[in-house]
Design brief:
- The complex is a heterodimer of chains A (412) and B (314).
- Chain A is α+β, with helices and mostly antiparallel strands and 412 residues long.
- Chain A folds into 2 domains: 245 residues, Lipoprotein localisation LolA/LolB/LppX (outer membrane lipoprotein receptor (LolB), chain A); 97 residues, no CATH class.
- The relative contact order of chain B is 0.14.
- Chain B has one domain.
- With 314 residues, chain B is mostly helical.
- In chain B, 69% of the residues lie in helices and 1% in strands.
- The chains are: A alpha+beta (412), B mainly alpha (314).
- At the A-B interface, helix 1, strand 4 and strand 5 of A face helix 1, helix 2, strand 1 and helix 13 of B.
Chain lengths: 412, 314
């Protein structure tokens, strides 16, 4: 072993002269963690900024050319992550429960007609309404019109809907329950998305619905370019025209320059501020997803709820709850007379609870129609009159009361 | 000021020169190479850590958690009833619903249950004690007498804390596997996305998750080490580390503070669940590991700055 040597005398450790040097060295050493933190902060701040910097330069297109490009796009296979943000300005406590009863009946989302099997936590009706508030990440995969999968990514859980031919499975990992439904043959071939929900889960779906609805009632312009999920894209700007009452300010759709696939859709309210609805890919690939993606067999011990055939049974059902529509285009107001579409049993209890919750943030209004409660969000407004009629639309509050007045006068 | 400290606090290069010189002149044949010598220090440090009753008690508590969860789930579902009296939306701990159908999920459920507090608390105790404990026991200066240098001693201390992170996670995993396999049926694993994978692949993913959970604790280990170099009292270092952990966990759960949350070390801890998706979501995992590396770099270098320049009086 090395002999233990007495330490050398080091004047630095004496009081006095060495003190300053020691302190300087201390400061120098503490500069290291500070520098590391600084570099990290700069990286965190700069990298996303650099990644977003610079809109791609693309050959300019007219709006018509861009719309043709979207229509001509035949991309059938896609997989990727989608981020959906909905900011209606609702208190977050009201998010799912109230949102479902608020929009379920009236906003024209036909899927949420009182359906079968809605009691199961795995039923799509129960689950997908949560997308109406907050930010969610979805994982989507599609291979043609017959095979799709949408997964809602939750912390340490996931909710998936798998559509494969006539089979629709939904699996909720948090409650370990599944929901199964067999679609009638004809329906599965007829529409591109015959999932039991009409809520758009991909930017493509959302863009298709919007473009179809806005045709002829809005101005379409190409508004520069952007990068979305690593793809160069054109920005299509849609502004409502001849619609003084609508609360929709503008809709932007980012369209992939190469494939013509809509990659992102944003709805801005007329009142300004943050986007009300924002759906866009954060990662996307147009490669064909593995076939096994669309296979689902419930594992051992998974409780399966069978949903009965919705389509034939629901048709008369829906006719009852199908809202009358006043006006057209952007100013359209849906009217639901709850007298004929009154939900029964358990559902009534649910909506009763939601009603009392809603009353706490609605505001009382009156007019020639009588009195009612007005619910205001950043995009959709709803008026529930005391005689049970619900007026809903993406229109201003005064337009709603005006419509109620007009309906009252006409009814006399 | 002790002589020992004077010896040990010189600039590192001089110290190393001296060590090498000593090795060269005195007994080159007997003296093992430096790297091996570091390992020796590391080994002795490990033995010190793992022989402590306190460490063993911590590990025993951690091993007890999966046992407790497993038995509770078994009793609740034993008569065929569903968990939580048919509760609807699965608001319980993560993965708990799947446990009764597949014992492997007890591993994930236990790790998800211990990761927020039990595991980091144990790490906080060991890390907080690492330097301050030696100081309060009066043994720190003797450690510094050895010509190892403070930097190397600190690295060895951090290494032993990280080893404890891995050991603690593996104890939870092993106990959960044993309990799960003993109490529940085991078979094909249904991933969160509804896809089935074989049991062997499930076991591999469980192992990967255990390693990820251990890696999630790197940040708090560095934080604890830094706190430990600040004080001479082992107890206060442990209390400060655990207190910090609790504070950060609370801040991480206040929605109004969401702007800060992505920079808090526990924020992405549950990202290990992404391993159980199909396709596996690596984004959150990468963020978690990056954040842990950042905490390790910042607080590790802060611990180094403090430890190499402080006066050791005890």
């Amino acid at each position: 072993m090395a002999p233990i040597q007495p330490a050398q005398y080091d004047p630095q450790w004496d009081d006095g002269g060495g003190e300053g040097r020691s302190r300087g060295r201390k400061v120098a050493r503490f500069a290291v963690p500070v520098a590391v933190a600084g570099v990290a902060a700069a990286t965190i701040g700069l990298v996303p900024a650099l990644a977003d910097a610079g809109d791609p330069s693309l050959p300019s297109l007219t709006a018509e050319q861009l719309l043709t490009k979207i229509a001509a796009s035949h991309v059938q296979t896609v997989s990727g992550s989608v981020k959906v943000t909905t900011d209606l300005g609702l208190p977050s406590a009201l998010s799912s429960g109230a949102a479902s009863s608020l929009f379920g009946g009236g906003a024209g989302a036909s899927a949420k007609a009182p359906g079968t099997g809605a009691g199961s936590p795995a039923a799509p009706q129960t689950q997908l309404t949560q997308l109406l508030a907050g930010t969610h990440t979805l994982h989507v995969a599609a291979d043609g019109p017959d095979r799709q999968k949408v997964s809602v990514i939750e912390p340490a859980a996931e909710y998936s809907i798998v559509h494969n031919g006539t089979q629709v499975w939904a699996y909720d990992s948090a409650s370990n329950q599944a929901y199964h439904q067999t679609l009638p043959q004809r329906q599965s071939g007829a529409t591109a998305h015959s999932d039991p929900q009409d809520l758009p889960a991909t930017p493509q779906d959302a863009a298709k619905q919007v473009i179809k609805a806005a045709d002829g009632t809005a101005s379409f312009t190409v508004d520069g370019t952007a990068r979305v999920a690593g793809h160069s894209a054109y920005e299509l700007l849609i502004r409502p025209e001849h619609a003084p009452d609508t609360t929709v300010g503008a809709i932007r759709i980012a369209v992939d320059a190469k494939t013509g696939v809509p990659l992102k859709l944003t709805v801005d309210p007329r009142g300004g501020g943050k986007a009300v609805f924002d759906i866009g890919y954060t990662k996307v690939s147009f490669a064909k997803p593995a076939a096994s993606t669309f296979d689902f067999t419930p594992g051992k011990g998974v409780k399966v709820t069978e949903g009965t055939d919705q389509a034939p049974k629901n048709t008369p059902d829906r006719a009852g709850t199908q809202p009358d529509v006043l006006g057209s285009g952007w100013d359209a107001i849906a009217v639901v007379k709850s007298a004929d579409g009154l939900p029964t049993g358990k559902q009534r209890n649910d909506s009763g609870r939601a009603d009392s919750l809603l009353n706490s943030f609605g505001k009382q209004v009156s007019g020639s129609f009588g009195t009612g409660t007005l619910f205001h969000t950043r995009l959709v407004n709803a008026l529930l009159t005391d005689n049970g009629t619900l007026y809903v639309g993406a229109v201003s509050e005064s337009a709603l009361t005006g419509a109620a007045d007009a309906a009252h006068t006409a009814g006399k | 000021m002790s002589r020992a400290e004077t010896t040990a606090t010189g600039p590192d290069d001089r110290e190393q020169d001296r060590t090498e010189a000593a090795a060269d002149t005195a007994a080159p044949a007997v003296r093992a190479p430096k790297a091996v010598w570091s390992l020796g220090l590391f080994r002795s440090e490990l033995i010190t850590v793992f022989r402590r009753w306190r460490t063993l008690a911590l590990l025993a508590v951690l091993a007890g958690v999966p046992l407790l969860v497993g038995i509770a789930v078994r009793i609740e579902t034993g008569n065929g009833g569903s968990l939580g009296g048919g509760r609807d939306n699965g608001n319980g701990p993560a993965f708990i619903e799947q446990v009764s159908n597949n014992g492997l999920f007890l591993t994930f459920a236990s790790l998800a249950a211990t990761l927020p507090f039990f595991l980091p608390m144990a790490i906080g105790v060991v890390a907080g004690d690492s330097v301050a404990g030696e100081a309060s026991a009066g043994t720190l200066r003797y450690l510094l007498v050895a010509p190892a240098g403070r930097t190397r001693l600190l690295l060895v201390k951090y290494g032993s804390v990280l080893t404890f992170c891995l050991a603690a996670t593996l104890v939870v995993t092993a106990s959960a596997l044993a309990t799960g396999f003993a109490l529940f049926p085991v078979g094909e694993v249904t991933l969160l996305s509804g896809t089935d994978i074989s049991l062997s692949e499930g076991l591999l993913r469980a192992l990967l998750i255990a390693v990820l959970v251990a890696a999630s604790l790197v940040g708090i280990a560095a934080l604890g080490l830094f706190v430990s170099t600040l004080t001479d009292s082992g107890i206060s270092a442990m209390a400060a580390t655990v207190g910090l952990l609790i504070t950060v966990q609370i801040v991480d759960n206040i929605p109004q503070l969401h702007a800060f949350q992505p920079y808090l070390f526990p924020h992405y801890w549950l990202s290990f669940a992404d391993i159980l998706r199909d396709p596996v979501g690596w984004d959150g995992i990468a963020k978690n590991l990056g954040l842990q590396a950042l905490y390790a770099a910042v607080f590790g270098s802060a611990a180094w700055a403090r430890f190499t320049s402080r006066d050791v009086t005890a």
